[in-house]
Design a protein that fits this description.
Helix content: 10-25%
Number of helices: 22
Strand order of the largest sheet: 25-26-24-27-28
Distance between the termini: 149 Å
Structural class: alpha+beta
Largest sheet: 5 strands, antiparallel
Length: about 1100
Amino acid sequence: MTHDNEVSGSRPNESSRSRGRPGRGGRPSRGRGGQRGRGDRQRNPQAAERRNEQQGTATVASAPEINQAASHATRDGGASRGRGRRGFRGSGRGRANTAGGQRTTIAGGRVFGGHLTGEAESEDQSSENSAAMNANASVFVPGQPFGRPSAEVGNNITPKAARRPSRSSAPDLPTRIHEDIANGQYECVICTNEVLRNSRIWSCPICWTATHMSCAKKWFTNRAKPPDHEQQQEQQPQQQTWRCPGCNSTMNDEPGVYHCWCGKEINPQSVAGITPHSCGQTCSKPRGTCPHPCPLQCHAGPCPPCLLMGPSQSCFCGKKTSTKRCGETDYTKGWSCHEPCGDLLACGEHECQNECHPGLCGSCETPVASRCYCGKVSKDISCDTLGDKLESYGWDRRRTEDGASEYEYEEISSWFVGAFKCGSPCGRPFDCGKHSCQRECHPQDEAQAHCPFSPDVITYCPCGKTPISDIAASRESCLDPIPNCGKICNRRLECGHLCQESCHIGPCSRCDQEIDLDCRCGRTKTSVVCHERDLHQPLCDKVCRIQLNCGRHEHGLRCCSAEKRAIERVTSKRRNRNASSLPEEFEAEHICIRVCGRELKCGRHRCQQMCHRGPCPSCLEAVFEEVSCNCGKTVLLPPQPCGTKAPECRFDCTRSRPCGHPQVAHNCHPDDIACPKCPFLVEKRCICGKKTLKNQPCWFEEPRCGLVCDKKLRCGTHSCNKLCHRPGACEDEGISGSHCQQPCGKTRSCGHLDTEQCHAPYPCKEDKPCQAKTFVTCECQRKKQEVKCLAAKNQPAPQRPLLKCDDECLRLQRNARLAGALNIDPQTHTDDHVPYSDTTLKLYRETPQWAHIYEREFRVFAGDETEKRLRFKPMKAHQRAFIHSLAEDFGLDSESSDPEPHRHVCLFKTPRFVSAPMKTLAQCAKIRASQDSSAPQSTVVNDATTAPYNGLLLTNPQFGLTVEELDAALRKEYAAYPTLKFHTSFLPSEEVVIKGSGTWTSQTLEASLTALKPTLQQTVRRLKLAENVFLCSVDESLNVVRREGGRAQGEGGWSAVVSRSAARPKPAGSSVAVAPAPLRSNFVALKKDTKKKIEEEPVEEDWEAAAEKLAADTVEAV
């Protein structure tokens, strides 16, 4: 018995503690797919007990028994929780029954089972021993595990692998759902993973498809939402609809909490012995019109038909009753006994003869013998078409023998009942015997009607305005004519107008008055005849340009009736643009009824909705074919939305290259995406065939050598100038004839090249003037002008006049003669002239780098003839002083604007600006440094320069300006300094001096005038009273002894360039002595008559004497 226990495992629970890992195909494994051991942790005690009993009673079970036990355990609740369909991987952890019938045991000591071995053994033990005894059994060794023979020697039987349970084939849907979930065979239609017993699920109430609750919520979140404008048009934006992933039905309720199939219990627990996701209670769901609730246990899918007996139900007519099973009873439509109905019809006389039917019986169609009211027609008509039954008197109409129109009537019967109108005129004669009744068939009285034309009835004319007695003699008979009064009828017509005809008998004619009828849009009026107003409505030519509700089309209709309302709507929308966005209400005429027709995102179908705003919705079509990648390894199973692109594949692309090189490793991709270019380098011949190029990429189809083709063209004169190109693609490709498009290039008779298009093989015609450029100069050849050659065959050398020399030419000639007289070479001549003031040079030495930057901007501004104004960025006071000083040296006007810290300088070009100095500040600083080191500083002090400023000097005043006008214009500026008094005077030098007085000290006066100058200068320039304003010092006789910007003798400045230009070194060997220039007053130096005298001086024949005289005059001016 000890041996048997070792072989079979005496402990019933030892197999549950073993760590055997049966894998795929019988190998020990611990897979997650298929049946998993963790799903069997005491969740089904009954199944566990059955398995333990089987293991305790049967030591070695055959393969069919093991498979049967495994399938039985699966149905009892031991289903796995594995994901994916990866096949059966064994019974998992905690079981010793493997797929092949083998079992793994743990090596250990002997187990006796609690008692000694006896002779008498039970049948079960004997059966176990008999099963274990074998001639090939291994020798028992104490302390060693007993080794079972692997297989019978004589019978090589391979154990069969355990088969995974297949999908349920139950006839009803609830059972199939229960079994598939219990066996792990039910798939979620969203994620395609198994729906298990412990999964939280959501079930569709229409198709009963069960999905994971998390998948259903994601499906709801990712639903296709309508566009914004459609959401605004919805009356209930809170209602959110979505579609079931199984049946595509519309759902109105959001996936809520997880509950059982019947909905009674929320978050139900998985209980052994109860169907998955069931609460175990009675279903009790209502079944349509059936009065009995479902009696089954909480289940999936639809409830089965009711098998109970239903209540008694009468037929439609109520004559018979019937009792059937509840499932066979039609509670909605009822049933018919197929006998005549017999209900009294609406006429109250006849009964319904139709078969037992639902609803009302309808009208009575029984034929009834009837007679018309006038008694002429008698026939059978349907009961429901009879009119009111009225009594009528019978009469007959006969003619006399001679055919006269005299009527006699004979009584047919005293009275009869008429039930309908025959539609013919009555024809009964009146009491006069001359006229008859023309009314439609109507009930008759016994007495004849009085004639309506008798004299006692008609007492007025037809229009009713005048009595007949006032018009003519009284009428004696009804046959007498009715006289007319001759007045306007004035009866009210149907249109509302009055009849304009004269008094007449009978109805009035149609209205012929002209009325103004508005067009459809109301913009214009049209005159029409009144009786034609309803025939057609006039239309104007105004085309409606209102945009329709789709936002894509215009109305385009002529004379739109809703155009005014649309304009008001658009205007109101523009005014309330910032108001809350409400759905725009379009007029019925401005609703687009075209089909949208735009291509959908799928690229296969077009939108079939009415033309709308915004993007089109997704395509509603579906594809029922597999959508796979190019290699076919990644597949999307149908159905798929239309336009679904091929899935992204993580496998390598399998396409082969046409060049034969290996493919570069890259992922599989659609056909519209090309494979990476072949990176291998090869030798290729260029497309022109001249060179073989190495290290060319394999993918490069047209390698080019970059050389000129240089192949002779068909003209035979020119060569192809195109770079490396395909054979036959030279310049003359596509040109008929033997010429090309290059210029001819042959030399004309004038010496220029022929620029006409190639005309080979013909010679140059030279019939057109030559268009080459040539030059015409003056006699001194300073001036030259570019002109066309214009030489032709009929005029080989056209004559052109020479240019005339101008004043510049004469000046250059005179300067050349003067340079020759002074023995000066203009090309190599240099001087030490400094065209900048000492203040400018001083400020430059303080910050040379910064000053060099702004000097460059000055020169750029001076060289640009189109720029008239330059504005600098805000800067400090000493930097602005440098800008003002440098502007004065350049001959530019400068002005400071804006308060601190935004005060900046602006430059202006005025007529006094000529050009920029030739020398730079750096060059002049070096010259001045050398002059200071070589020559001692002058100690002569000019008294005029030390005098303080006591006035303002205005230069170039306005023509005709008076003292009163100037004082009135500057009164506001004078008011800022109430302690000063200003006196205005005109000087003989055509300048204006404003002398100030009123302060105790001259320094205070100078400071006040200095502060007043910028404001006064700005006003003077703005009003154009004078050109500029300077500070000055005048004496009692109004002589200017000092002015702002004045320089002592020997100082530099661009304003003194002209005066110093003649001070050149005397040529060697010259014996002419230069007399010292006499000292002149400042007032005389400001005269402008010197230039006029120089211009008026006659040209002397002796140019040397003239040069000496010019030099002397220049020295005197300095």
